[in-house]
Specification:
Layout (H helix, E strand, L loop, with lengths): L1 E4 L4 H14 L2 E4 L17 E4 L7 H9 L4 E4 L9 H6 L3 E3 L6 H16 L2 H9 L17 E5 L3 H12 L3 E5 L5 H7 L2 E2 L2 H7 L2 E4 L13 H6 L4 E5 L8 H10 L2 E6 L21 H6 L5 E3 L8 H20 L10
Parallel strand pairs: 1-2, 1-3, 3-4, 4-5, 6-7, 6-9, 7-8, 9-10, 10-11, 11-12
Helix pairs in contact: 1-12, 4-6
The structure holds 1,4-dihydronicotinamide adenine dinucleotide.
1,4-dihydronicotinamide adenine dinucleotide (NAI) binds next to α4 and α6.
């Protein structure tokens, strides 16, 4: 298949090229994101391959469908950036990579949590400046803490098991309880307000959808245990960032580890070190000593990149051969 690959970066090209060669697909790489203004680049390709911050709204989909594209291959799990109804109306099939390395994301969640708790980001900067003072670096034992896992699917369950391994008590919230997680960790399911009130650490692992948009808002932050830590490696839209800022200022939120941010599409994945940051909310978040922000890198392991490439190419081959699209998403 001829595939227009959008929003490509150096770290993934080699892996994608290798997997494509194995299955005979021809890739054209574009650094641009797919959006209405760049959609004509898809001309002459049967498929587009996109990532989390491409804009697959009705307008884009109508343009690529008119250019002969038949398949949208997401090289990610989340599909909140695709207008699925418009895709169906334009005869565009949508496939994704449902799982590439839930371990990568769960382990990055742990990395953010431990770094925040033990002030690793601050200690690292200090010792590079030969400041070996310990003032302000007091953390707390993870052992015995209550960790509230919001969303106990693949990633949330792995994170729950990791936290259980540290000696934490696991509270969980999900529309579907995960029996395996209960058996393995003794996790207890609770209502969201009960979980918020009892957790020392909150970790978000639900997908972004209408029901979960701003699941952590002003009210949720008010319900939280004072000083609780919040880690979000799922999607930025789960957290009302302005409410989080107020929570951090008042001390209601003890610390925040964010791998995702609602308005990340304008800044993440690119080097803006020479630019004046225009996003005042992000700029404010970056001023807190108890906030760590990473730019949507939780998935970024060699294992995950290789799984993404393999599944994406298998998805393309299935479409090409008219086989069932096992990884299809539809409205
Ligand atoms: P999953 O589908 O295995 O688990 C999601 C869980 O959320 C399910 O157990 C489901 O029942 C639950 N859920 C759905 N709607 C809910 C609601 N309204 N209330 C409560 N629970 C609800 O997904 P997985 O693989 O664990 O991924 C979770 C999220 O992680 C993805 O949706 C994606 O947004 C994010 N992600 C982030 C990455 C990163 O690099 N930062 C990489 C990969 C995924």
């Amino acid at each position: 298949m001829h595939v227009a690959v959008f929003d490509t970066h150096g770290y993934e090209r080699g892996t994608l090229e290798m997997a494509a060669a194995e299955r005979g697909h021809k890739l054209t790489f574009f650094e641009e994101r797919l959006r209405p203004e760049t959609a004509l680049l898809a001309s002459g390709h049967e498929a587009v391959c996109v990532f989390v911050n491409d804009t697959l709204d009705r307008h884009t989909l109508e343009i690529i469908a008119a250019e002969g594209v038949e398949l949208i291959a997401l090289r990610c799990a989340g599909f909140n950036n695709v207008d699925l109804a418009a895709a169906a109306q334009n005869n565009l099939k949508v496939v994704r990579v449902p799982e590439y390395s839930p371990y990568a994301v769960a382990e990055h969640t742990l990395a953010l949590l431990l770094a925040l708790n033990r002030r690793i980001h601050r200690a690292y900067n200090r010792s590079r400046d030969r400041n070996f003072s310990l003032e302000g670096l007091v953390g707390s034992d993870m052992h015995g803490k209550t960790v509230g896992v919001i969303g106990t699917g693949k990633i949330g369950a792995i994170f729950g098991r990791i936290a259980h391994g540290l000696g934490c008590r696991i509270l969980a919230y999900d529309v579907r309880p995960n029996e395996e997680l209960i058996a393995q960790t003794g996790a207890q399911y609770a209502t969201l307000p009960d979980l918020l009130a009892a957790s020392d650490i909150l970790s978000l692992h639900v997908p972004l959808m209408e029901a979960t948009h701003h699941i952590i808002n002003e009210e949720a932050i008010r319900q939280m245990k004072r000083g609780a830590y919040l880690v979000n490696t799922s999607r930025g839209g789960l957290v009302d960032a302005q409410a989080l800022i107020e929570g951090l200022k008042s001390g209601q939120v003890g610390a925040a580890g964010l791998d995702v941010y609602e308005e990340e599409a304008d800044v993440f994945f690119e080097d803006h070190s020479d630019d004046v940051l225009q996003d005042d909310i992000l700029a404010r978040l970056l001023t807190f000593p108890n906030v760590i922000i990473t730019s949507h890198q939780a998935f970024l392991t060699t294992e995950a990149l290789s799984n993404i490439a393999d599944t994406t190419m298998a998805n393309l081959s299935a479409k090409e051969k008219g086989e069932p699209l096992t990884n299809e998403v539809s409205a």
